[in-house]
Amino acid sequence: MNFTKLFSLLAFIALAVLSLGFASAAVTVTTTSSATPSVVQGGQVNFAITATASGHSGNFTNAMFVLPVLFSGASWSGNSTFNLLNETLGSPVTQTITLTVPSTVAPGTYNGAINFTGSYLTPSGSTVPPQINALPITITVPAPAPSANLTITAPTSAVNVGQNATLTITNTGNSTLTNIIISEITANPFLVTFMPSTINLAQGANQAVQAITTGLSNIKFGFNTVNVKAAAGAQNATASFQIKKTFCSSGPVVGNLSIGNVDWSNEGEGSDNDWELLDEIELEVEVKNSNDDDEIDAIVKLGLFDLNGQNNADDLIYLENSDGDKEEVPITVNENDEETVTYRFKVPADLDEGSYKLALKVYDEDEGESKDCDDSTTDFNNDFFQEIEVKQTSDEDRYVIVDEITADSPVSCGEIVNGEFTVFNVGKKNQDRVKITMKNNALNLDQEFEITEDLDKGKDKTIDYQFQIPQGVENKFYTLAFRTQYDYKNGVYRQESDKEFIFPVEVAGCTGNLGNAGNTSLTSTQISAELDSEAVAGEQLVVKATITNTGTESKSYSISARNYNDWAELDDISDESFSIGAGEDKEIILTFTVNSDATGTKTFDIQAASGGKVMVQEVEVEIGEAKKKFSFNFGDNSAIWIIGIVNVVLILLIIVVAVRLSKR
Fold first, then answer.
1. Phi and psi at residue 37, to the nearest 5°
2. Residue 647: what are its φ and ψ, rounded to 5°?
């Protein structure tokens, strides 16, 4: 072998040895975190993983950590891809990655290794795999401590009284619960019962429990909140649901009757839903009968419930033009038809301020509420009631007012007018003293009244008055004007009502012969009268009068009697005010008590007034003497007379018996 060949062989061997050195490059995976952590179900653990290359002078490409699948659902996050370059030879590369343990993984120990993969490019350009020193890890998932957790699911919509509420009791823990007791914890209990009231629940299980709402106590109109508790030892849960008590006594019962449109308006100082004391309210209710065959006698009833569930509707002041003088109005609704009931009422001055619930119901008078009753309408903001606020007036000029005024009417010249009025404190302050003036210039009327004791807010005082109608005034309506003065201090009334409170009084029969034609004579009217009883001194006298409107338009009449005082007392006039249509008549009854000493021919006048004009019809009555009562006067020999009478009766009886025997 020559020297050249020997040199070539030695060079090849040296290159081979050098190549083998490069091929022995290695990567070691380590961590500064614990490689054997304990992680609870649903927990996480972080690993700071370091890759260190050694024994190389080339580059690594496609370098990354290989993460083990320790259990089903294992989730790794973080950056596991990187490059190990020649420039970083001997410098570690660290990445942080996170392992999430599913909540469903079974407790136990899970082993694996964090590995490395990549290509090693030698300086000569060849690619060889490096030696890998993997990082073994062990994950321990401990068994959870026993836990239990109760929940209650209650209805979100209110249930009617008598309708059960379904509660769902759930054990969301991982252990069984026994002897779970369900109870009511309402501060003022309604005595709701539960079926069942005691249950057992395995982990993750639930059970329905019925809350029984029959036979309850303390239930008020509106929504009633029931608080419920489920408890098993230290474990407990609470929930609440609502029971609604509507106006129908048995709850709404679908039948032939229903409430249609409901409209209401405030004609006073407040608004439709904010009422001030003494405001006048008009409310119209449409009632429908869906029966195609029969009419129905129904009852419409109004309710006004306070926060204590008390119905204050009977305290409202129902006006003359209301369809009823109380909260109940009977009506008849024809088959497949509808009727409208109109309430007109005044808010009383002594009604407490606060929140109220306005309610209505209609039910079959014959069948009763348990068979056919409706108490809801979409016109109310809560389906079966409308929220109303009652307030004292905020206007200082109306703190003290006059209302509920009465007066004799019609009256004639020279007569005394008797009446009364009531003073109400509807403001926000108590009043030490109050002065009231009553005036009418045409009647020369100027009177003052003073309330010297306290008139606290919400209170009232009724005052009687009288005055005389002057001679020579016109026959017409006169207005009595009242004003109030209040806010008394240091002898001065510092506030006066901003408006007058007025009341009309009709004056009639004050001039000339009212039966003759003239400016004060009432035409197109006839008055006839006849006796309807015996006319006897000391007895009751009944006169039947007929008023006929012979005109072409309807007239409103006021009826009175005059010029009877010297021989009788007037007990009653059946109808003192009424309207008569054109061509129609009206029968009225006047009842007198004749004086015991009256006798002979007597007269009195029936007076009909309309529109400031009057007609007078004189009625003549012939009074008979008082009837004499039959009596016996035996003087001092009464015993002898009685014995004699008895003997006479006995003799007559003997004769009668003898006659009958003789006929046999």
1. -75, 160
2. -65, -40
